[in-house]
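Lab notebook, entry 473. We have the chain sequence and a SMILES string for flavin-adenine dinucleotide, and the next step in the workflow is to get a structural model of the bound complex before anyone spends time on docking refinements. Request logged below.

Task: model protein plus flavin-adenine dinucleotide, output structure tokens.
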Amino acid sequence: MVVVHENNAPHHVVIIGGGFGGLYTAKTLAKANVNVTLIDKRNFHLFQPLLYQVATGTLSPADISSPLRAVFRKSKNTKVLLGEVNDIDPEAQEVILGDRTIPYDTLVVATGANHSYYGHDNWRPLAPGLKTVEDAIEIRRRIFSAFEAAEKETDPELRRAWLTFVIVGAGPTGVELAGAISELAYKTLKEDFRNIDTSETKILLLQGGERILPHMAPQLSKVAKVSLQKLGVVTQTNTRVTNIENDIVTFKQGDKVQEIASKTILWAAGVKGSSIGQVLANRTGVECDRSGRVIVEPDLTIKGYKNIFVIGDLGNFSHQDGKPLPGVAPVAKQEGEYVAKLIQKRLQGQTLPQFRYNDVGSLAMIGKNLAVVDLSFIKLQGFLAWIFWLVVHIYFLIEFDTKLVVVFQWAWNYITRNRRSRLITGRETFEEAKTVTNDVSLTTLKKNSEVRIQESASMSRARVLHVKNQPAS
Ligand SMILES: Cc1cc2nc3c(=O)[nH]c(=O)nc-3n(C[C@H](O)[C@H](O)[C@H](O)COP(=O)(O)OP(=O)(O)OC[C@H]3O[C@@H](n4cnc5c(N)ncnc54)[C@H](O)[C@@H]3O)c2cc1C
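Result returned:
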């Protein structure tokens, strides 16, 4: 369907989401004879594959973020709008942003996915996932606060809990987090503390399926497992988490139920489509899969609406081999490019064959000099794979100055093993107070004042902690 406006105004493409899908749609349309409005609730594109390096103190948030206005500075047909879309009216062809409506001729929905706790949303604050800059800063705060708290802790059991890190989910993010925490504990921080030996840190990586990195070739999963073992990470497969409560993770492997006390539990398991998927389902009757992803047609439109495309992590495209494409950046990028080309073809009265994903393979970093790379024509491991991983990530970073900063940080980190971004910052400056034990009640929590913690009835000892004037940064 091609819309020609009476006043000859160009076709208006509205893109929701400036992640990989939306960004590459807009970039590919930059020279087309269309008007583009790119809407995002953030004013920057976030390079999520490197978020774990923010969470573990190697990079700063700005190193992996590109302001959308700067990216599209030279694209005169592209308008960037900051705002959160909360509704779509497909009959009126309008996108609704609070009390404002934006008309469209073609709509591209690329709002990505969020974490799924498989119905246990109460675990969310106890085991944060990694998706946004805020998540990364929160995880960084928890990791570095854990070492600080362990340094002060005199009770050996609690100290052990502080030095125990549990990661749920052994896809690339879980594996990369585990490797990076190991590097911190056994190398970077080793000489920085006086009361604790950071190499007593325990890192447990739990995986529901039968192998880690399940999307990779089995031999690479094995290599990754052995490499992690050498780094001090214990991996446990075929294991389901059944409860997270009071800093205790309960998990089940077959009939065996185990518990571990950990003050830092991180979630790198399931995903679910962003809420705009449900909005589309309610408004158009399109079907969503069990993970809330919108089922799309072979040309990435939704059933009955030739002018609405859903791409990236929010879409379920199962027209290639019957299975949905994975939620990875190259899928979102290629879908964005395809949609942009299809829109231009349609404006010329033509069309394109259905979308086809060109699988370029997958990679995961395990640690210094250690990665695994699974390409269709070659499998790499160890140092070569690590170099390949670095080059690919640098290549895909969006802005040139960001690439330089990241290269510099990596080189510095490689030589010194230092991590410059080890800042403990975050929403509650006095979170430390909560950290004294898992079973305390906070009687007062006020910034710039004293905080007192009282033990609950089940505690065996009284603990009082005073925190004064901690600067928020
Ligand atoms: C920690 C982590 C590590 C990863 N590592 C890799 C990796 O190594 N390799 C790889 O290929 N892939 C990796 N991925 C996956 C990859 O990042 C995603 O597949 C990709 O980002 C999907 O792109 P997208 O455009 O669909 O969504 P996103 O990139 O998530 O972008 C969605 C955008 O929509 C915006 N948005 C959402 N809702 C609204 C709304 N209502 N209104 C306005 N804007 C909205 C968001 O602010 C965001 O900018 C990783 C993901 C994570 C979280």
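Notes for the group: Residues 429-473 have pLDDT under 50 and may be disordered. Worth checking against the assay data. The two ends are 52 Å apart (CA to CA).
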